[in-house]
Amino acid sequence: MSDTWPPKRKSSATGxxxxxxxxxxxxxxxxxxxxxxxxTVYLLDLSPSAREEALRLASRLSGVVLGFAEEVRRLSxxxxxxxxxxxxxxxxxxxxxPYRPDRVVLISDGLFEPVVPPFPLFALYVQPxxxxxxxxxxxxxxxxxxxxxxxxxxFAPVEVEGRVLLEGPAGTRAYRLRVEGxxxxxxxxxxxxxxxxxAVAEGGWGRSEDRVELRPQDQVRxxxxxxxxxxxxxxAQGFSxxxxxxxxxxxxxxVVVGLGVLDLPEGAARALKDYLEAGGGVLFTAQAVxxxxxxxxxxxxxxxxxxxxxxxxxxxxxxxxSMRGEKLALAVEGALRLxxxxxxxxxxxxxxxxxxxxxxxxPRPMTPQGKKEAESLLRSLGAGGGTVLGPAYREAVLxxxxxxxxxxxxxxxxxxVSDPKEPILEEARRAGFPTSTLALGQDAxxxxxxxxxxxxxxxxxxxxxxxxxxxxxLAEGERVFREEGKRGRFPxxxxxxxxxxxxxxxxxxxxxxxxxEPWAEVLLLSQGDPLLALGERGEGRVAALATELSLxxxxxxxxxxxxxxxxxxxxxxxxxxxxxxxVLVQGRLEAPRLLAAGVEQPxxxxxxxxxxxxxxxxxxxxxxxxxxxxxxxxSEYPPLDGRKVLAQMAEESGGRLLAPSELGALPKVQxxxxxxxxxxxxxxxLLERFVHYRLGV
Length: 697
Hints:
Elements: H1 5-30, E1 33-36, E2 40-45, H2 51-58, E3 64-68, E4 72-74, H3 89-96, E5 103-108, E6 121-125, E7 133-137, E8 147-167, E9 173-190, E10 195-203, E11 206-214, E12 221-225, H4 228-236, E13 240-243, E14 254-257, H5 268-277, E15 281-284, H6 286-289, H7 293-296, E16 303-305, E17 312-318, H8 326-341, E18 347-353, E19 357-365, H9 368-378, H10 390-401, E20 407-413, H11 422-430, E21 435-440, H12 446-456, E22 457-463, H13 469-481, E23 486-490, E24 493-494, E25 508-511, E26 514-516, E27 521-526, E28 529-537, E29 540-545, H14 557-569, E30 575-579, E31 582-586, E32 593-596, E33 599-602, E34 604-607, E35 610-614, E36 618-623, E37 626-631, H15 642-653, E38 657-658, E39 669-672, H16 674-695
Parallel strand pairs: 2-3, 2-5, 5-6, 6-38, 12-13, 12-14, 14-15, 15-29, 17-18, 17-20, 20-21, 21-22
Antiparallel strand pairs: 1-39, 3-4, 7-8, 8-9, 8-10, 10-11, 16-26, 18-19, 23-25, 24-27, 27-28, 28-29, 30-31, 31-35, 32-33, 32-36, 34-35, 36-37
């Protein structure tokens, strides 16, 4: 025998195996398909809307049959289990995967959101049973005393007629309705204590009911400064209202300012600015908007006064010898504040009097340049001489007589007037514009100054402490410079905003001319001028109103003001919003959690003071000692076209919608041969190794 014969035999035996192996691997790479019956898994929708139709078809099925609703179970012949009231097709798909199906046949009414199948899906649409489902949607954060609305949502996959009863604190309401798809109702009532609302829908198709319990949460706290009408409206809307005085710290959720800046203590402007920027809500009413806040908080007021024409004021300032030192310094400071308070449309002049009278500067517009010059001239004043008022007063009357519009004289003195007084009083009576007087200190000629104010139709003020002089002098100037409200019937035009939707606004009886800041959003207009504007400053929200609420009464004013106040205070109070099965919470929270079915999960931060969680059904938001009930709306009868849902899912997976006649003779599927070919390749590889080993021994 030749020594070369065994190697030749070995090479021949293994060569054809290796060639066949390479051929099989090439085939697996190409992945050929072979039409076949394949492995089929049937999914039966046993939720209430499709249950009866799906079970009627179950007898025609053979093989693996899974029933599903909220739970999934493999069915035995004739079994009719209850698997819940919701349709969880995603769970059914997951349970079908271990059976490694070549295709899945889904028998359902398609009343669920589409889910992308992980396998070829063939769907058989069954008509949902006629039914009218009722679900109640309570307000997420009801407040004590608030007029709340419980949403009533009706779902019917096919047109049905039914009788709907609503029962609660507002009494019983009955409706007879025809519904197809979705329809909504609203049940409203004042929430003065814990309350329960029940809804029942009945018809030939059966009965559906739902109920919710409302427990009022903490009231929104409002501090109202100087606006009794608005305080009354907020109380009627369920707010916890405190009316003044202004004190620190500001702990309310909302501050309503109905007073001028000079009517509040020193430091109020700074405190309001800090409160607003830290997340508080502030509402300025008309008397505040036009009360000097445009200068005290120039960057935080959404509306500013707009003047058609300015006012003219002459300050007659005592600079006699008794005014030396602190008195004159404080008088000059007061005059400087008066300069600051004037707008570009206003005119201001100052006459200094002692033994004689002299103009410090004649009435001039208080433009930026005019204010700069006035400040320089006032700081140059000195004191000395007697107290002769007459010539100065006559100069002031003469200068103002030549000017149009609103005019006034302010007289400041600390001593006894030495010249004849009756001519001055007579001049004041004939002037045609008011004269106000300020008596500074105990030695002032109080009797005469009071008589001069009465003769001139102005105000008389006693300033016993010199340190109060700048503030009181400014207050008098503000009173003259302030634009008067226009009276009449002024139509109101709302602009598009959630706060104005659904309201009909009648004309206002008084409005103050105003202009909106560039950063503000205008909500109401009247004759082209803004009537209400709001905006954000720092972390807080601020609004300003250019009319008097006490003179603007209409049926819906309470609801409108309440909505505006809640919007402004939202940064400091808790707000809950439900979107599908998502729960969104906004507010300053410590470590909020969501408790549902005995399980706690943290609410995840999704923005500044915003948190989000997922909930199916009912649960409770936990934050410290607060417990806030919340529920998401899950319906077995959503307003969907089930046939389209099934067709979409089938097409996206490579399947299609089946006709009922095709259920017993399913179309062939293209089964992949890749897996069998890979197993064959493995076998050939092992065989080649075995032959090589045996022949090589």
